[in-house]
Design goal:
Blueprint (H helix, E strand, L loop, with lengths): L4 E11 L10 E2 L3 E3 L5 E5 L1 H12 L6 E4 L6 E4 L9 H6 L1 E3 L7 E3 L3 E3 L2 E3 L7 E4 L2 H4 L11 E4 L2 E11 L5 E2 L4 E2 L2 H16 L2 E4 L2 E4 L4 E7 L12 E2 L2 E2 L1 H11 L4 E4 L7 H8 L4 H17 L2
Parallel strand pairs: 2-12
Antiparallel strand pairs: 1-13, 1-18, 3-4, 4-10, 5-6, 7-8, 9-13, 10-13, 11-12, 14-15, 16-17, 18-21, 19-20
Helix pairs in contact: 4-7, 5-6
Length: 291
């Protein structure tokens, strides 16, 4: 049976990376409440996708406005093909033309939200325009802006249907194996060194911990299995899940990130993050070599 499912669950450390609707002069982070009343912030999958597409320089797929009046929407041009544009190959599309039904392609690369592993404690950052107002010939008032702020570890999961990369039944496209492999390995290189530009900051979203591999089943095995308590990663849940998967799995880890590093090394036998990504790329290349 072909190994068509790549999945990788990761942890990165970052601060205040995705804001939602503001109220007055207050900018609020995207957040959710779990059982027990604790609040957790998150980076939406759309925000993560946006950063990925920009860094891969895949944000060149042509778009156009469709519909009229209040029903006008921006979508990919009907003639845009996965052959020419990796963005819609990996992340899907909906394309409509007058008098025709919509053509859709579901995402081949799926992202989860990146949810904080540490609760949000309602910290606020207070900002003014003092620097600019002092330059004015006449003193001006300094409006105070407030932004919610949260520094935490975040976890998210990527899954890829390797057999669907470069294949689009809507227009009969099937790219050569070499190009299909290159698109996935380029994407993995982006994930390995991912960052996000937000409010004048560049946040490092590169993983400090990752677990996954290329499998026969297309399942996000380790999603929602990453737990952190007082700086300690719950290793037993991951080790038990790895055993249940019963297929070769690899762990990448930057030593010293968590307080139980010795336990992580003993039970999960991690390699470096670079080794993990090099191994995944080699698995992807081997997978496409026989297609």
């Amino acid at each position: 049976m072909k190994k068509n499912g790549l999945t990788l669950s990761m942890i990165f450390e970052a601060e205040s990376g995705n804001y939602g609707e503001g109220t007055g002069n207050i900018t609020t982070l995207k957040h959710m409440t779990r059982a027990g009343g604790k609040t957790y912030t998150y980076f939406s999958r759309q925000a993560i996708r946006y950063s990925m597409i920009q860094q891969l320089q895949w944000d060149k797929t042509p778009v156009e406005a469709s519909g009229s009046g209040e029903k006008t929407v921006v979508q990919f041009q009907p003639k845009a093909s996965v052959k020419d544009y990796p963005e819609i190959d990996l992340f899907g599309y909906m394309k409509t033309a007058a008098g025709n039904n919509a053509n859709t392609r579901s995402a081949v690369v799926r992202l989860s939200n990146a949810v904080s592993l540490e609760p949000y404690a309602a910290d606020m950052d207070f900002l003014t325009n003092m620097g600019l107002s002092k330059r004015a010939e006449k003193g001006t008032s300094n409006a105070i802006a407030q932004s919610e702020i949260h520094h935490s570890f975040y976890a998210y999961t990527i899954t890829i249907d390797l057999d669907r990369i470069g294949v689009d039944e809507n227009d009969g496209t099937e790219l050569p194996s070499e190009e299909r492999s290159k698109r996935v390995t380029d994407f993995l290189s982006c994930v390995e060194f991912l960052y996000r530009d937000i409010k004048g900051r560049r946040e490092n979203l590169a993983p400090v911990f990752a677990i996954g591999g290329v499998y026969e089943h297309k399942s996000p095995f380790f999603e929602n299995r990453i737990k952190l308590t007082n700086g300690k990663l719950n290793v037993d849940i991951l080790a038990e899940t790895e055993k249940a998967v019963n297929e070769p799995t690899m762990v990448g880890y930057i030593d010293g990130e968590f307080s139980n590093s010795d336990e992580i090394k003993e039970k999960l036998a991690p390699v470096s993050i670079a080794e993990l990504f090099n191994h995944l790329k080699a698995q992807v290349e081997d997978s496409y070599a026989g297609r």
